[in-house]
Amino acid sequence: MHSHKMNSDFHYTTTYLLDKSHFSETFDESARLESGIKAYGKALSLAIAGLVVLLFTPFTAYLAWFLVGLGVVEGLNVRFKKSWWLARQMLSRAAGNKVDLTIDEQGVHTQSAYVDSMLNWENVTRIESTERGWLLYQGQARFYLSNRCLSDEAVAFIRSKSAMKSA
Q1: Residue 107, by phi and psi: left (phi above 0), alpha (psi -120 to 50) or beta?
Q2: N or C: which end of the chain has fewer CB atoms below 10 A?
Q3: Which residues form the YcxB-like C-terminal domain (predicted)?
Q4: What would the pLDDT profile of 79-137 be if each residue is shown by its tens digit?
Q5: pLDDT of amino acid 34
Q6: Which domains occur in the chain, in start order?
């Protein structure tokens, strides 16, 4: 006797392209962005520390200006975070490659020329719905799945997995 899969087992496969729009959506949906003054807090505190060192201590001006410079760099990092992240992704080997995505009872499997990763449902600690997709958490790591590459059935399947995780 040989075993065969029952029809109730869910299996979905698709292919998508790692292009700029995919990376941009991934950043928008998964980056934890702080806004306003809070986002620039580290930059401001570094710059203020530098000015304090410059004005009130006998340390060399070099250290003070180094701290101020770090503050400026940190501020630029906050301001251009998405642009820099996108540029790095577009320059990576993965950019422009097709990814095969399979979602089934075991988990989420992604495979390309450079990546072969399996995220098992049992290891997913949390599933969060975003405006345009899903964030799957495995400990501190997050994996983003865009709704634009999912069928209605695949979305319903992930939603059911999400309900099981939060129950």
Answers
A1: left
A2: N
A3: 103-159
A4: 788 888 888 898 988 899 999 999 999 999 999 888 888 999 999 999 999 999 999 99
A5: 56
A6: 11-16+99-166 (2.30.29), 19-96 (no CATH)
